[in-house]
Amino acid sequence: MSGDYKNMWKNLGLDLEAHDALLEVLGTGYQDIYMSQQDRPEGMGYFDFVVSEVHGLRIKELMDEKAAGRKVIGSFCVFVPEEIVRATDATLVGLCTGADFAMDEVEKLLPRNTCSLIKSAFGFKLGKVCPYLESADMIVGENTCDGKKKSYELLNNLVPNLYVMDLPQVKSAEGRALLKAEYLRFKKAVEELTGVTIDATRLKKGIEIVNNKRKAVHRLSSLRKADPAPISGLDALLANQVFFYDDPVRFTESVNKICDELEQRIEKKEGVFPEKTPRILMSGCPMALPNWKLPCIIETSGAVIVGEESCVGERGTRNLTDNSWDTVDELMEAIVDRYFQVDCAIFTPNSDRLDHIVEMAKTYKADGVIHYGLQFCQPYLMESMPVEKALEAKNIPSLRIETDYSMEDVEQLRTRVEAFVELLK
Amino acid sequence: MSGDYKNMWKNLGLDLEAHDALLEVLGTGYQDIYMSQQDRPEGMGYFDFVVSEVHGLRIKELMDEKAAGRKVIGSFCVFVPEEIVRATDATLVGLCTGADFAMDEVEKLLPRNTCSLIKSAFGFKLGKVCPYLESADMIVGENTCDGKKKSYELLNNLVPNLYVMDLPQVKSAEGRALLKAEYLRFKKAVEELTGVTIDATRLKKGIEIVNNKRKAVHRLSSLRKADPAPISGLDALLANQVFFYDDPVRFTESVNKICDELEQRIEKKEGVFPEKTPRILMSGCPMALPNWKLPCIIETSGAVIVGEESCVGERGTRNLTDNSWDTVDELMEAIVDRYFQVDCAIFTPNSDRLDHIVEMAKTYKADGVIHYGLQFCQPYLMESMPVEKALEAKNIPSLRIETDYSMEDVEQLRTRVEAFVELLK
Question: Are the beta carbons of B152 and A348 separated by less than 8 Å?
């Protein structure tokens, strides 16, 4: 991490000592996992830089935006519509959740049997090490799973600016009406926070920026159909993770630049792994930065990851918002339509997701699917059963993994993954 | 269990051998836990009989009702409005969930980290030992917690007649609208199932029957304010459990008869435990028949339970449905109003429940509160944290217990409960 950001972090109320320790671990982990990869696209240099500055330059940019009167909104979920935030010139950022921190403190507040993602969010707050959370003018929670829904009641005691969005559980007419009412309420809240009234021009611009970001990752995904794979799953995951942190326009350009490079690789039949390397589709719970444990195990066990059916991946980015309408009302309907398609496991039934996993396995020519479930994440763990069945019905091998953010089970996971990869050869 | 019900059970598709084993365990457990109590009200003889015939005579009655063209509807939750069922002369029964059964089979279908209540429901189905489930013409699931919501997708593969009711998560205008839409849809489904059209007279009659049942348990609860306690918590819990199984009119009469007896006891200052015995309010997850583990530990550790803040208890029964309206529309609104007050932990925020626990502790003159959380039940486990704080703020001692249906932790629980009771003396 370059630059002297100590004063900025101090002003944000971070615990400098703990934060230094976190950055040290993050840096070492990144070196070990990312920089040890062979034949990475040159364009990944940009993402290396982003990660090295994820708590530095990027926070400085947010501070500059705030100084210029713009607002920063933090979120934990892909159901928070970035289009609306962007329409007010505010910035939406993902909040820190991908690593264990201050677990002793966390377990005084949350039940032990809570998933790592939620515990992590609390750990970053209690440990005072998330500059995104501390710089946010509004933190948006959402009633997705029980764990998040109920933990926001507790988070509300720790932060002064929590806004909770309700979400439907069923894709019925009433469910859509609820989502629409909540998005209209959110729009109003963002307008109040920013002092900006969202008109059609602003909203269309917001949609365009976010759609472009999505189109860039669609292009990246599409290039991963090639064999040999032109980019590792770890690097593609990183792009999907940075999606939540970086400036959207710069992000879009950077991903497109990598895609230009990958197209040349594909033309030359160059890849990061040999042709015929077993190809894995990852499916399941989101992997927030710096949660790279399982992908790293997979890609050092003789396989390559060719797609992520995940909130941090195709579930989060696959659909565009229809920008062909002219009024705020119509555009809001289009936003509701877009997000109502997200096939999160909180919905019941959620058969679209089963179809999408099978479709992705075919599209990306995956030899097998690894389902990633966070321990205690009831929606995804329960749904992993029908996922397995749906894949079985199509003769697609699958492996169900249930894990957390700790490193205790790495060798055990490696053994299971290696055995699975062996099956696919 | 008297009578020869073998043929009936066989016709229902039960596994007779497994079912015999279950009844044996149930019978022994009941003897050990219930019949060993001292100075029980004579009226409890009725409930002893009910339990002894819970899979016998009661099922025979349901079979007779079915033969006469009436329907049986099974449910797992207090959000299923019995008024509507009763208005069609159908019978609503609670489905078996209070004990571990066929766990090996269950864990092939459900994640290991699923709460005992849900696993138990699946165990009774997979083990073919629940005559209520097998005799039901309709089984109603409901989107309460993630565990139940997602497990109904799996249960749907095991039963031919599952109906799933959506529920809100927030007590907003949209939340109420969703509950109303779902209750209207349920009314229609019950009308279709039974062939009975619900008019105002029928609905008023249904409401009256269910209200009377509630009033009887309110009367029972109220008598437990006395010191010495005129009835054990175990016996009162049993009445609350049988609430879900018995014929409602007969149940009402039987509870009122016990109340007459208890009033005499109170007048004579007679109780089941000595005066000044430490008084415990139980709060938390529902305890379905035959889940008596924790109450038994508490009442054999020198304390008496004086109230249940639970679905199987006051959370489930406290509010009446306003029966003073004249049209079906108005009465349906009254039903929605009544159930929308239920302060289940699936709602966020759910501060009403915190207030109600404090209020109950005062009303029933509890010396302390034991919060009962089923392992992996995220809503109640998360909410146990603010419950503890709310009680602390009122200087009411509390103990948080997290357990399952197994007997492995009995001695450990006893040690903790005894220490807690010692504190209250």
Answer: yes
